[in-house]
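Mods, move this if it's the wrong board.
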Amino acid sequence: MDASTAAFPGPPLNLRRRFAIASLGIITVIALSLGWLLSNLLTQSLLQHEGEANRDFIQNLLTTDGSARYFAAPEDPELRKRFLGSMEHIAAVREPVRANAYRPDGTMLWSTDKALVGQRFPVNDELDEALSGKLVVHSGVIGQHDPKAEHQGLDQHATYFVESYIPLREPGSTQVLGVMELYKQPTQLSADIRLAVIKLWLACAICASGLFLTLYWIVARADRILRRQHAQLAEAQSLASAVELASAVAHNIRNPLASIRLSAELLEHSGTPQADLGEHCGDIVSAVERADRWISELVRVAQAPQLQPEVVALGPLVSACFDEMAGEMARRQVRGTVELTPPGHVLAHPAILRQILLSLMANAIEAMPEGGQLRVSWCEQGRLAGLHLTDSGHGIPDEVRKRLFRPFFSTKSGGLGIGLALVKRMVEQWQGSLSLSAAQPCGTCVEILLPRAEALRPASQVPQVPSKEGAPHGNPVGY
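Not the wrong board. C-alpha coordinates:
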Protein backbone atom coordinates (compact mmCIF):
# COMPACT_ATOMS: atom_id res chain seq x y z
CA MET A 1 0.00 0.00 0.00
CA ASP A 2 1.47 3.36 -0.97
CA ALA A 3 1.11 6.69 0.73
CA SER A 4 -1.73 7.84 -1.50
CA THR A 5 -4.00 4.93 -0.75
CA ALA A 6 -3.21 4.89 2.97
CA ALA A 7 -5.05 8.18 3.54
CA PHE A 8 -8.32 7.13 1.96
CA PRO A 9 -10.95 4.71 3.31
CA GLY A 10 -11.85 1.40 1.65
CA PRO A 11 -14.21 0.86 -1.28
CA PRO A 12 -17.85 1.99 -1.00
CA LEU A 13 -20.54 -0.33 0.31
CA ASN A 14 -21.69 -2.87 -2.29
CA LEU A 15 -25.39 -2.69 -1.47
CA ARG A 16 -26.46 -5.14 -4.16
CA ARG A 17 -24.10 -7.94 -3.11
CA ARG A 18 -24.72 -7.55 0.61
CA PHE A 19 -28.48 -7.50 0.12
CA ALA A 20 -28.29 -10.57 -2.13
CA ILE A 21 -26.35 -12.55 0.48
CA ALA A 22 -28.41 -11.41 3.48
CA SER A 23 -31.84 -11.62 1.83
CA LEU A 24 -31.10 -14.99 0.18
CA GLY A 25 -30.14 -16.45 3.55
CA ILE A 26 -33.13 -14.97 5.38
CA ILE A 27 -35.66 -15.88 2.68
CA THR A 28 -34.25 -19.42 2.45
CA VAL A 29 -34.57 -19.89 6.23
CA ILE A 30 -38.12 -18.50 6.19
CA ALA A 31 -39.11 -20.67 3.20
CA LEU A 32 -37.67 -23.83 4.79
CA SER A 33 -39.32 -23.11 8.14
CA LEU A 34 -42.64 -22.27 6.51
CA GLY A 35 -42.48 -25.34 4.25
CA TRP A 36 -41.71 -27.61 7.19
CA LEU A 37 -44.50 -26.12 9.30
CA LEU A 38 -47.09 -26.22 6.52
CA SER A 39 -46.16 -29.74 5.46
CA ASN A 40 -46.60 -30.96 9.03
CA LEU A 41 -49.90 -29.12 9.32
CA LEU A 42 -51.06 -30.53 6.00
CA THR A 43 -50.07 -34.06 6.97
CA GLN A 44 -51.77 -33.78 10.35
CA SER A 45 -54.86 -32.27 8.76
CA LEU A 46 -55.20 -35.11 6.24
CA LEU A 47 -54.60 -37.74 8.90
CA GLN A 48 -57.02 -36.06 11.29
CA HIS A 49 -59.67 -35.96 8.57
CA GLU A 50 -59.06 -39.68 7.91
CA GLY A 51 -59.38 -40.44 11.65
CA GLU A 52 -62.63 -38.47 11.96
CA ALA A 53 -64.10 -40.39 9.02
CA ASN A 54 -63.16 -43.70 10.68
CA ARG A 55 -64.60 -42.52 13.99
CA ASP A 56 -67.95 -41.63 12.45
CA PHE A 57 -68.08 -44.96 10.61
CA ILE A 58 -67.31 -47.08 13.70
CA GLN A 59 -69.48 -44.99 16.03
CA ASN A 60 -72.47 -45.33 13.70
CA LEU A 61 -71.79 -49.04 13.17
CA LEU A 62 -71.67 -49.87 16.89
CA THR A 63 -74.49 -47.51 17.80
CA THR A 64 -76.90 -48.87 15.21
CA ASP A 65 -77.01 -52.40 16.64
CA GLY A 66 -76.23 -51.32 20.22
CA SER A 67 -73.09 -53.44 20.36
CA ALA A 68 -71.08 -50.59 21.88
CA ARG A 69 -72.45 -51.61 25.29
CA TYR A 70 -70.46 -54.86 24.96
CA PHE A 71 -67.38 -52.97 26.26
CA ALA A 72 -69.15 -52.49 29.58
CA ALA A 73 -70.80 -55.98 29.71
CA PRO A 74 -68.56 -58.49 27.92
CA GLU A 75 -70.34 -61.42 29.61
CA ASP A 76 -73.66 -60.69 27.84
CA PRO A 77 -73.93 -63.28 24.98
CA GLU A 78 -76.38 -61.21 22.97
CA LEU A 79 -74.14 -58.15 23.05
CA ARG A 80 -71.17 -60.34 22.24
CA LYS A 81 -72.94 -61.70 19.17
CA ARG A 82 -73.82 -58.21 17.94
CA PHE A 83 -70.34 -56.90 18.66
CA LEU A 84 -68.60 -59.73 16.83
CA GLY A 85 -70.92 -59.22 13.88
CA SER A 86 -69.90 -55.54 13.76
CA MET A 87 -66.23 -56.45 14.04
CA GLU A 88 -66.62 -58.75 11.03
CA HIS A 89 -67.55 -55.69 8.96
CA ILE A 90 -64.44 -53.87 10.19
CA ALA A 91 -62.19 -56.88 9.59
CA ALA A 92 -63.60 -57.22 6.09
CA VAL A 93 -62.36 -53.74 5.15
CA ARG A 94 -59.19 -54.15 3.10
CA GLU A 95 -57.27 -51.12 4.30
CA PRO A 96 -56.77 -51.76 8.05
CA VAL A 97 -53.88 -54.09 8.72
CA ARG A 98 -55.03 -54.65 12.28
CA ALA A 99 -58.03 -53.62 14.39
CA ASN A 100 -58.08 -53.73 18.20
CA ALA A 101 -60.80 -53.07 20.77
CA TYR A 102 -59.84 -51.95 24.28
CA ARG A 103 -61.86 -51.88 27.45
CA PRO A 104 -61.76 -48.79 29.73
CA ASP A 105 -59.03 -50.45 31.83
CA GLY A 106 -56.78 -50.90 28.74
CA THR A 107 -57.34 -54.65 28.36
CA MET A 108 -57.52 -55.94 24.76
CA LEU A 109 -61.20 -57.01 24.33
CA TRP A 110 -60.98 -58.03 20.70
CA SER A 111 -58.36 -58.01 17.91
CA THR A 112 -57.93 -59.28 14.42
CA ASP A 113 -54.88 -60.99 15.89
CA LYS A 114 -56.40 -63.54 18.28
CA ALA A 115 -53.09 -63.86 20.17
CA LEU A 116 -53.47 -60.31 21.53
CA VAL A 117 -56.96 -60.77 23.05
CA GLY A 118 -56.87 -60.43 26.81
CA GLN A 119 -53.47 -58.73 26.92
CA ARG A 120 -52.85 -55.36 28.56
CA PHE A 121 -49.94 -53.12 27.58
CA PRO A 122 -48.87 -50.85 30.44
CA VAL A 123 -47.22 -48.17 28.25
CA ASN A 124 -49.47 -46.73 25.54
CA ASP A 125 -49.77 -42.98 25.69
CA GLU A 126 -52.10 -42.75 22.69
CA LEU A 127 -54.51 -45.23 24.29
CA ASP A 128 -54.53 -43.32 27.58
CA GLU A 129 -55.30 -40.10 25.72
CA ALA A 130 -58.13 -41.76 23.77
CA LEU A 131 -59.63 -43.19 26.96
CA SER A 132 -59.93 -39.60 28.18
CA GLY A 133 -62.29 -38.96 25.27
CA LYS A 134 -59.99 -37.51 22.58
CA LEU A 135 -59.55 -38.81 19.04
CA VAL A 136 -55.85 -39.60 18.59
CA VAL A 137 -54.22 -40.06 15.19
CA HIS A 138 -50.58 -41.08 15.24
CA SER A 139 -48.28 -41.70 12.28
CA GLY A 140 -44.68 -42.69 11.94
CA VAL A 141 -42.08 -44.81 10.24
CA ILE A 142 -41.46 -48.35 11.43
CA GLY A 143 -38.01 -48.66 12.89
CA GLN A 144 -37.63 -44.89 13.38
CA HIS A 145 -38.68 -45.16 17.03
CA ASP A 146 -38.71 -48.04 19.52
CA PRO A 147 -41.40 -50.56 18.43
CA LYS A 148 -44.58 -50.68 20.49
CA ALA A 149 -45.66 -53.89 22.20
CA GLU A 150 -49.04 -53.86 20.44
CA HIS A 151 -47.23 -53.80 17.07
CA GLN A 152 -45.81 -57.28 17.51
CA GLY A 153 -46.44 -59.60 14.58
CA LEU A 154 -46.90 -56.75 12.01
CA ASP A 155 -45.11 -56.54 8.67
CA GLN A 156 -41.88 -54.62 9.22
CA HIS A 157 -41.21 -54.11 5.50
CA ALA A 158 -43.83 -51.41 5.08
CA THR A 159 -42.25 -48.27 6.48
CA TYR A 160 -45.14 -45.80 6.90
CA PHE A 161 -48.05 -46.50 9.27
CA VAL A 162 -51.05 -44.63 10.67
CA GLU A 163 -52.93 -45.68 13.77
CA SER A 164 -56.17 -44.13 14.94
CA TYR A 165 -57.46 -44.47 18.51
CA ILE A 166 -61.23 -43.85 18.43
CA PRO A 167 -63.11 -43.34 21.72
CA LEU A 168 -66.59 -44.94 21.78
CA ARG A 169 -69.41 -43.32 23.79
CA GLU A 170 -72.92 -44.23 24.70
CA PRO A 171 -75.34 -42.09 22.66
CA GLY A 172 -76.25 -38.95 24.59
CA SER A 173 -73.43 -39.50 27.10
CA THR A 174 -69.84 -38.32 27.46
CA GLN A 175 -68.70 -41.50 29.17
CA VAL A 176 -66.11 -43.48 27.17
CA LEU A 177 -67.18 -47.14 26.87
CA GLY A 178 -64.01 -48.28 25.11
CA VAL A 179 -61.51 -47.53 22.37
CA MET A 180 -61.14 -48.92 18.87
CA GLU A 181 -57.68 -48.87 17.29
CA LEU A 182 -57.26 -49.08 13.55
CA TYR A 183 -53.69 -49.72 12.41
CA LYS A 184 -53.10 -48.97 8.70
CA GLN A 185 -50.23 -48.92 6.26
CA PRO A 186 -51.97 -46.63 3.74
CA THR A 187 -50.12 -46.76 0.45
CA GLN A 188 -52.53 -44.46 -1.37
CA LEU A 189 -52.84 -41.99 1.51
CA SER A 190 -49.07 -41.95 1.86
CA ALA A 191 -48.70 -41.25 -1.86
CA ASP A 192 -51.30 -38.46 -1.65
CA ILE A 193 -49.57 -36.88 1.33
CA ARG A 194 -46.21 -37.13 -0.40
CA LEU A 195 -47.59 -35.49 -3.55
CA ALA A 196 -49.25 -32.71 -1.51
CA VAL A 197 -46.03 -32.06 0.40
CA ILE A 198 -44.02 -31.91 -2.83
CA LYS A 199 -46.49 -29.38 -4.27
CA LEU A 200 -46.31 -27.40 -1.05
CA TRP A 201 -42.51 -27.31 -1.09
CA LEU A 202 -42.55 -26.37 -4.76
CA ALA A 203 -44.96 -23.51 -4.03
CA CYS A 204 -42.71 -22.31 -1.20
CA ALA A 205 -39.67 -22.42 -3.48
CA ILE A 206 -41.48 -20.49 -6.23
CA CYS A 207 -42.78 -17.87 -3.79
CA ALA A 208 -39.35 -17.50 -2.15
CA SER A 209 -37.64 -17.16 -5.54
CA GLY A 210 -40.23 -14.62 -6.71
CA LEU A 211 -39.88 -12.62 -3.50
CA PHE A 212 -36.07 -12.67 -3.70
CA LEU A 213 -35.97 -11.69 -7.38
CA THR A 214 -38.49 -8.89 -6.85
CA LEU A 215 -36.66 -7.44 -3.85
CA TYR A 216 -33.30 -7.89 -5.59
CA TRP A 217 -34.58 -6.02 -8.66
CA ILE A 218 -35.83 -3.17 -6.45
CA VAL A 219 -32.54 -2.97 -4.52
CA ALA A 220 -30.45 -3.31 -7.70
CA ARG A 221 -32.38 -0.44 -9.27
CA ALA A 222 -32.02 1.62 -6.09
CA ASP A 223 -28.29 0.77 -6.02
CA ARG A 224 -27.86 1.98 -9.61
CA ILE A 225 -29.71 5.20 -8.80
CA LEU A 226 -27.65 5.72 -5.64
CA ARG A 227 -24.40 5.12 -7.51
CA ARG A 228 -25.43 7.53 -10.24
CA GLN A 229 -26.47 10.13 -7.67
CA HIS A 230 -23.24 9.51 -5.74
CA ALA A 231 -21.22 10.11 -8.90
CA GLN A 232 -23.21 13.26 -9.59
CA LEU A 233 -22.73 14.41 -6.00
CA ALA A 234 -19.00 13.73 -6.18
CA GLU A 235 -18.80 15.68 -9.42
CA ALA A 236 -20.78 18.53 -7.88
CA GLN A 237 -18.55 18.52 -4.80
CA SER A 238 -15.45 18.55 -6.99
CA LEU A 239 -16.85 21.53 -8.89
CA ALA A 240 -17.79 23.26 -5.64
CA SER A 241 -14.32 22.59 -4.23
CA ALA A 242 -12.73 24.02 -7.37
CA VAL A 243 -14.93 27.12 -7.11
CA GLU A 244 -14.14 27.53 -3.41
CA LEU A 245 -10.45 26.94 -4.04
CA ALA A 246 -10.50 29.59 -6.73
CA SER A 247 -12.17 31.99 -4.28
CA ALA A 248 -9.55 31.19 -1.65
CA VAL A 249 -6.71 31.81 -4.10
CA ALA A 250 -8.38 35.02 -5.25
CA HIS A 251 -8.53 36.10 -1.61
CA ASN A 252 -4.81 35.41 -1.20
CA ILE A 253 -3.94 37.23 -4.42
CA ARG A 254 -5.29 40.44 -2.91
CA ASN A 255 -2.16 40.72 -0.76
CA PRO A 256 0.38 40.76 -3.63
CA LEU A 257 -1.96 43.01 -5.62
CA ALA A 258 -2.01 45.46 -2.70
CA SER A 259 1.79 45.40 -2.68
CA ILE A 260 1.90 46.05 -6.43
CA ARG A 261 -0.57 48.93 -6.12
CA LEU A 262 1.33 50.53 -3.22
CA SER A 263 4.68 50.24 -5.01
CA ALA A 264 3.19 51.63 -8.21
CA GLU A 265 1.69 54.62 -6.37
CA LEU A 266 5.04 55.36 -4.76
CA LEU A 267 6.75 55.24 -8.17
CA GLU A 268 4.34 57.85 -9.48
CA HIS A 269 5.91 60.45 -7.25
CA SER A 270 8.76 62.08 -9.08
CA GLY A 271 10.60 62.83 -5.89
CA THR A 272 11.25 59.15 -5.12
CA PRO A 273 15.01 58.53 -4.61
CA GLN A 274 16.75 56.25 -7.09
CA ALA A 275 17.67 53.74 -4.34
CA ASP A 276 14.02 53.37 -3.36
CA LEU A 277 12.96 52.83 -6.99
CA GLY A 278 14.91 49.56 -7.15
CA GLU A 279 13.34 48.33 -3.90
CA HIS A 280 9.82 49.17 -5.13
CA CYS A 281 10.49 47.48 -8.46
CA GLY A 282 11.75 44.41 -6.63
CA ASP A 283 8.58 44.34 -4.53
CA ILE A 284 6.46 44.55 -7.67
CA VAL A 285 8.34 41.69 -9.38
CA SER A 286 8.19 39.55 -6.22
CA ALA A 287 4.45 40.14 -5.79
CA VAL A 288 3.76 39.35 -9.45
CA GLU A 289 5.80 36.14 -9.24
CA ARG A 290 3.93 35.13 -6.10
CA ALA A 291 0.53 35.71 -7.72
CA ASP A 292 1.67 33.86 -10.85
CA ARG A 293 2.80 30.89 -8.74
CA TRP A 294 -0.55 30.71 -6.97
CA ILE A 295 -2.45 30.88 -10.24
CA SER A 296 -0.24 28.14 -11.71
CA GLU A 297 -0.93 25.94 -8.70
CA LEU A 298 -4.66 26.59 -9.04
CA VAL A 299 -4.62 25.62 -12.74
CA ARG A 300 -2.59 22.48 -11.99
CA VAL A 301 -5.01 21.47 -9.23
CA ALA A 302 -8.06 22.17 -11.40
CA GLN A 303 -6.68 20.02 -14.25
CA ALA A 304 -5.80 17.04 -12.03
CA PRO A 305 -8.24 14.09 -12.39
CA GLN A 306 -8.01 13.49 -8.62
CA LEU A 307 -5.96 14.93 -5.80
CA GLN A 308 -3.79 12.16 -4.38
CA PRO A 309 -2.02 12.95 -1.09
CA GLU A 310 1.74 13.02 -1.07
CA VAL A 311 4.49 13.16 1.54
CA VAL A 312 4.85 16.79 2.62
CA ALA A 313 7.61 18.22 4.82
CA LEU A 314 5.88 20.70 7.15
CA GLY A 315 9.00 22.71 8.03
CA PRO A 316 9.93 23.94 4.52
CA LEU A 317 6.28 24.47 3.64
CA VAL A 318 5.61 26.68 6.69
CA SER A 319 8.85 28.62 6.06
CA ALA A 320 7.83 29.23 2.45
CA CYS A 321 4.40 30.47 3.57
CA PHE A 322 6.04 32.88 6.02
CA ASP A 323 8.26 34.14 3.18
CA GLU A 324 5.22 34.85 1.01
CA MET A 325 3.41 36.65 3.82
CA ALA A 326 6.51 38.57 4.98
CA GLY A 327 5.54 41.83 3.26
CA GLU A 328 2.01 41.85 4.64
CA MET A 329 3.27 40.93 8.10
CA ALA A 330 5.81 43.79 7.99
CA ARG A 331 3.16 46.33 6.99
CA ARG A 332 0.87 45.21 9.83
CA GLN A 333 3.77 44.91 12.34
CA VAL A 334 3.18 41.19 12.89
CA ARG A 335 6.15 39.12 14.01
CA GLY A 336 6.25 35.43 13.12
CA THR A 337 8.03 32.67 15.00
CA VAL A 338 8.38 28.95 14.27
CA GLU A 339 9.30 26.26 16.78
CA LEU A 340 12.87 25.09 16.17
CA THR A 341 12.15 21.41 16.85
CA PRO A 342 12.17 19.60 13.48
CA PRO A 343 8.58 18.61 12.55
CA GLY A 344 7.50 15.36 10.96
CA HIS A 345 6.17 14.57 7.50
CA VAL A 346 2.48 14.26 6.76
CA LEU A 347 0.25 13.07 3.92
CA ALA A 348 -1.54 15.87 2.05
CA HIS A 349 -1.69 17.61 -1.30
CA PRO A 350 1.18 20.14 -1.24
CA ALA A 351 -0.43 22.90 -3.32
CA ILE A 352 -3.75 22.78 -1.47
CA LEU A 353 -2.06 22.55 1.95
CA ARG A 354 0.00 25.63 1.00
CA GLN A 355 -3.19 27.54 0.13
CA ILE A 356 -4.79 26.38 3.39
CA LEU A 357 -1.86 27.67 5.45
CA LEU A 358 -1.78 30.96 3.51
CA SER A 359 -5.50 31.47 4.07
CA LEU A 360 -5.20 30.75 7.78
CA MET A 361 -2.19 33.07 8.07
CA ALA A 362 -4.04 35.82 6.21
CA ASN A 363 -6.99 35.47 8.58
CA ALA A 364 -4.65 35.56 11.60
CA ILE A 365 -2.88 38.66 10.31
CA GLU A 366 -6.20 40.42 9.74
CA ALA A 367 -7.16 39.57 13.33
CA MET A 368 -4.16 41.66 14.54
CA PRO A 369 -4.74 45.14 13.00
CA GLU A 370 -2.44 46.77 15.59
CA GLY A 371 0.31 44.21 15.22
CA GLY A 372 1.16 41.16 17.28
CA GLN A 373 2.75 37.75 17.10
CA LEU A 374 1.99 34.79 14.82
CA ARG A 375 3.48 31.60 16.23
CA VAL A 376 3.74 28.09 14.73
CA SER A 377 4.42 25.05 16.91
CA TRP A 378 4.37 21.34 16.10
CA CYS A 379 2.03 18.76 17.61
CA GLU A 380 1.45 15.01 17.44
CA GLN A 381 -1.55 12.85 18.31
CA GLY A 382 -1.30 9.11 17.74
CA ARG A 383 -0.99 8.44 14.01
CA LEU A 384 -1.52 12.16 13.28
CA ALA A 385 0.95 15.01 13.21
CA GLY A 386 0.56 18.68 12.44
CA LEU A 387 0.90 22.19 13.75
CA HIS A 388 -0.64 24.88 15.94
CA LEU A 389 -1.05 28.32 14.32
CA THR A 390 -1.54 30.85 17.15
CA ASP A 391 -2.12 34.59 16.88
CA SER A 392 -2.21 37.25 19.60
CA GLY A 393 -5.29 39.03 18.32
CA HIS A 394 -8.50 39.87 20.16
CA GLY A 395 -9.75 36.29 19.87
CA ILE A 396 -13.11 34.92 18.77
CA PRO A 397 -16.15 34.66 21.04
CA ASP A 398 -17.27 31.10 21.82
CA GLU A 399 -20.65 31.44 20.12
CA VAL A 400 -18.99 32.72 16.94
CA ARG A 401 -16.21 30.11 17.01
CA LYS A 402 -18.81 27.29 17.05
CA ARG A 403 -20.33 28.64 13.81
CA LEU A 404 -17.16 29.45 11.90
CA PHE A 405 -17.03 26.10 10.08
CA ARG A 406 -20.58 26.38 8.81
CA PRO A 407 -20.84 27.12 5.07
CA PHE A 408 -21.55 30.76 4.17
CA PHE A 409 -20.97 32.04 7.69
CA SER A 410 -18.48 34.88 7.84
CA THR A 411 -17.50 37.54 10.37
CA LYS A 412 -16.12 39.78 7.61
CA SER A 413 -18.18 42.41 5.87
CA GLY A 414 -18.68 41.21 2.29
CA GLY A 415 -17.09 37.81 3.03
CA LEU A 416 -18.46 34.69 1.33
CA GLY A 417 -18.06 32.45 4.37
CA ILE A 418 -16.48 29.57 2.44
CA GLY A 419 -12.85 29.76 3.61
CA LEU A 420 -12.87 27.84 6.88
CA ALA A 421 -15.63 25.48 5.71
CA LEU A 422 -13.48 24.57 2.68
CA VAL A 423 -10.34 24.20 4.80
CA LYS A 424 -12.04 21.86 7.27
CA ARG A 425 -13.54 19.73 4.50
CA MET A 426 -10.23 19.39 2.66
CA VAL A 427 -8.37 18.40 5.84
CA GLU A 428 -11.03 15.80 6.70
CA GLN A 429 -10.79 14.36 3.18
CA TRP A 430 -7.15 13.62 3.97
CA GLN A 431 -8.33 11.75 7.13
CA GLY A 432 -7.15 14.61 9.33
CA SER A 433 -8.82 17.14 11.60
CA LEU A 434 -8.98 20.91 12.09
CA SER A 435 -10.12 22.74 15.21
CA LEU A 436 -10.12 26.25 16.71
CA SER A 437 -9.60 27.13 20.34
CA ALA A 438 -8.89 30.21 22.42
CA ALA A 439 -5.23 31.02 23.00
CA GLN A 440 -3.84 32.29 26.30
CA PRO A 441 -3.78 35.08 27.31
CA CYS A 442 -5.54 36.24 24.14
CA GLY A 443 -5.92 35.28 20.50
CA THR A 444 -6.91 32.16 18.62
CA CYS A 445 -5.16 28.83 18.06
CA VAL A 446 -5.82 26.74 14.92
CA GLU A 447 -4.83 23.07 15.15
CA ILE A 448 -4.24 21.09 11.94
CA LEU A 449 -3.62 17.35 12.23
CA LEU A 450 -2.86 15.14 9.22
CA PRO A 451 -1.89 11.46 8.80
CA ARG A 452 1.73 10.96 9.69
CA ALA A 453 4.13 9.75 6.95
CA GLU A 454 6.73 7.84 8.93
CA ALA A 455 9.86 7.90 6.77
CA LEU A 456 8.04 6.63 3.69
CA ARG A 457 10.85 7.98 1.56
CA PRO A 458 14.36 9.28 2.30
CA ALA A 459 14.62 12.86 3.41
CA SER A 460 16.63 13.67 0.30
CA GLN A 461 13.65 12.68 -1.84
CA VAL A 462 11.13 14.85 0.01
CA PRO A 463 10.30 17.81 -2.25
CA GLN A 464 11.73 21.02 -0.87
CA VAL A 465 9.80 24.27 -1.27
CA PRO A 466 12.11 27.08 -2.39
CA SER A 467 12.28 30.12 -0.22
CA LYS A 468 11.94 33.68 -1.35
CA GLU A 469 15.67 33.82 -2.07
CA GLY A 470 15.55 30.48 -3.93
CA ALA A 471 17.46 28.45 -1.32
CA PRO A 472 15.81 25.31 0.10
CA HIS A 473 14.68 25.45 3.69
CA GLY A 474 15.72 22.83 6.19
CA ASN A 475 14.52 23.26 9.75
CA PRO A 476 12.04 26.12 10.26
CA VAL A 477 13.48 29.44 11.32
CA GLY A 478 11.98 32.37 13.21
CA TYR A 479 11.02 35.70 11.77
